[in-house]
User: Fold this.
Amino acid sequence: MSIEAVTIPKWGMTMTEGIVSDWLVAEGDEVSRGQEIIEVESTKTTNAVESAASGILRRIVVEAGETAPVGALVGVIADASASDEDIDAFIASFAGASGAEEEEDSNAASIKTVDVGNGAVVNVLTLGAESDSNVVLLHGFGGDVSTWLFNQDAFAQKHRVVAVDLPGHGASSPTQGSDVFPSLVASIERALEISAPGKLHLVAHSFGGAVAAAIAAHQPERVASITLIAPVGLGKVINKEFLDDFITAERRKPLKDVLERLLADPSKISNDMIEGTLRFKRLEGVPEALAAIRDTIVDGDGQRHSITETLANFAGPVALIWGGKDKIVPLPDGSQIPSNAKFSVIEDAGHMPQMEASSEVNSIVLDNISKSL
Amino acid sequence: MAKISFRQALNDALRLEMARDPRVIMMGEDLTGGAGGNGVKDAWGGAFGVTRGLLGEFGPERIRDTPISETAFIGAAAGAALTGMRPVAELMFVDFAGVCLDQIVNQIAKFRYMFGGRARTPLVIRATYGAGTRSAAQHTQAFYPIFTHFPGLKVVIPSNPYDAKGLLLQAMRDDDPVIFLENKMLYDTMGEVPDGSYTVPFGEAKVVRDGKDVMIVAIGRMVKIAEEAARKLQSDGISACVIDPRTTSPLDEDTLIEFAEEIGRVVIVDEATPRCGMAADISAMLADKCFDSLRAPIKMVTAPHTPVPYAPNLEDLYVPNADAVIKAVKSIIER
Amino acid sequence: MFSLHLPHERLLEAYRTMQTIRCFEERIATEMGTGDIPGSTHLYAGQEASAVGVCMHLSDEDYISSTHRGHGHCIAKGCDINAMMAELFGRVTGTCGGKGGSQHIADLRKGMLGANGIVAGGAPITCGAALSAKLRKTDRVAIAFAGDGAMNEGAMAESLNLAKIWMLPIIFVIEDNGFGEATANEFVSAGSFVRRAEGYDIPSAEVDGTDVFKVYTAAGEAIERARAGGGPSLLHVHVPRYYGHYSGDPDTYRTPEEKKIMRQEQDCLIKFRNKVSVEDLVKGSALEAIDAEVIAAVDEAVKFARNSEFPPASALTTDVYVKYQ
Assistant:
């Protein structure tokens, strides 16, 4: 008999508590793994949380409208074989709330820029216990470390996590000179040399996938696993209009239109996301830097990167995750997937399954990482 | 990125742009303080410290302390703008605009139109506004409805340090005349502001807080008041959206209409006096364009139709507060 | 005397410009009767020597501002009379696209910062142009033309003070035609303009505005001073105003006798002709040829204006801003 806790998740560095804004299922309902069962609101965002387990929602511990700290128990999932006394006992002994505080201390996130030479800096977020093995998170075009808001803490439970802002994104300075992609990769490699010594488990999204592949090609002995979410570089087709429109959108409405194309459920684009992206894009030099990166990703003939060979030649575990409704980089067909890659499709997600189906993605990532340990 | 004050954010913007563009000059009363005297130079750095340090960096030719002659130096800013410079002039208190209103409304606002599009007047007039400092009737008004009324002027009212810097940089790069209003009570407020240059566009309202039961439109210092009200309303189960227009001319009608149509209930909070004010202006526009979506009358929370009083208890009654906003929201939430 | 040293070409130019202004203004007086010139105009006839004597020293890079009585300054500064006439007729081919009218004629390409419908409104603006010239390290100057009425506006007092304290390259040319609108100057002005200027330590002089050579000389000194960094000057130029304040003004506050004497004894064109013939500087026939050319040119201007379209309806809402965003 298994009893699973449903808890308030931790999204980002500053979240300490969340409001249960809505239960999407009722006590007694069957739930399956990956199904959205509860909506939680933090000061920054509202998101649905998927069930980590299949079973029956046996008990709701925190009702809709109530607030609870990160990590607190809000519901219990178990199968029919668990008795009500078993459920009561589980609840009584749950140590989630205090656990969150301990986590806070040992896994305290730190964010700072590191000097990568020639006056350039890369912004690096680290969390989780010190280790000689690092889960490296590489975001995609136009993103930053907040791409991993719903993932980083899950990874940090078991691993040291190092997330970076790619050059020209977030708080990282833009690349200099005309060799944009090699220069960008070099900056990240230098940052990882400083901040993530030891083994690297690369987890990358979209354009970050090309960066991950380049690192794996340069340093195969150091990279222990590769998990890519909707990466560029497996096919020719890409939604160039999205990239172009992202670069030119200067106001809220047009940018919202663009960002909505990223998700299967456009209503999940929050005001904070739009405002954050606007603030990033307004910085002097950012549109130019983004245009330069776009030009490395796509030209008149389609995608310019190809990562297939690097993945095929990689000795460690490779996993690919894709949203079934991705409008930016379409699902690859069988012939485009290297035979050594485990390929998972999340049907109801768009181009950002790490946000839209975070539990499931976290699970697949942790699973792939564990294969190499 | 750093957490800095509204005042510092403005200073940063002025410094960055003056370094970038040699055509930018500043003129106003006591921008430095101490000019012509025997004591310390740059003694004030502006009546509210906004321009401190600029004299040392850019010199007295570009940072000019003027006689108390608003008509002359605002008019001089106009003439300089017509002939290739990009002046930033300061009215120490927006209330002093009365003294130089001709130069602003009959000259600056109208050159481009009267001259058939063959002139441009790229200047910024910065001015402080707002009640709360016990400065009484002639040093506390909010004149932005007056400037908004005149075609040819742009009117900008930042509510926080991030917007203050980005909007002022935009104002200095804008080819049209901009009246840039700074609420005195906001100078010491803090916020995260990027170190480098960036601009915030005009005619682009900011969704300060998303919500679905009522839309609260707030201007300048009232944005914080609206946020406070929204937080309190949240615990009463009412979800309030707060929108900051940032510029009253141009006004982002599209965003206001979008949210009014979706939500159907509107409260506007503005510290200017009520007749012919921004609350009335926005209310009329929404009533015209969103009538069928509105589920309740549009409520306006403003100062009363009086000058600003001196006694602290009276001045505190004068400026709208969160309770007044909450009351207005609740009066329409049941309908 | 400057007149003795002005090249022949310049003498002809002076006459041509004054005559053009005279002709232009007199033609407007008659055209007003047709109803084709909307609104009101304020005619400069009689005051020509002032505008011309000053503007002969200026290039397109120098600045002037003017008053509601601005046609003369405009012409003296080199504005195209076809476009000016079209502007008065409210046509799209006008200097301001038909959107400004008589009181707002401007041509920034010629350094003409605009006629101004607000008395003394141009003085502060001209200080700004002078400041601009100084900061850009040019030796350009700015002339603020104003009338006797403007001397009692606060804007003028502030401008004089600011100009001196900032040592701006500006000359205030106060064209005193004896009347601020319908009220005599003596009735409203205390003290003297020259002494007021001197109160600000601004060098100033009284000038006979009926004699273009005297204006030229006085203006030359003031402009040289300004170009050399010597700061502002003020010229109190006495001129006759031939018409009423505005073009329909019956002007009954002046007697017929004084108006007759004005045109006989104070006419700058007659005085110029007399002087150049007495001193044998220019042939009468040359002047007559100019007279004919000017009449033809003004004729052309009126035809041009009449044949031009009014601005399209879309022009109502254009050019309020460079970009309303």
Summary: Confidence is low (pLDDT under 50) at residues 96-103 of chain A.
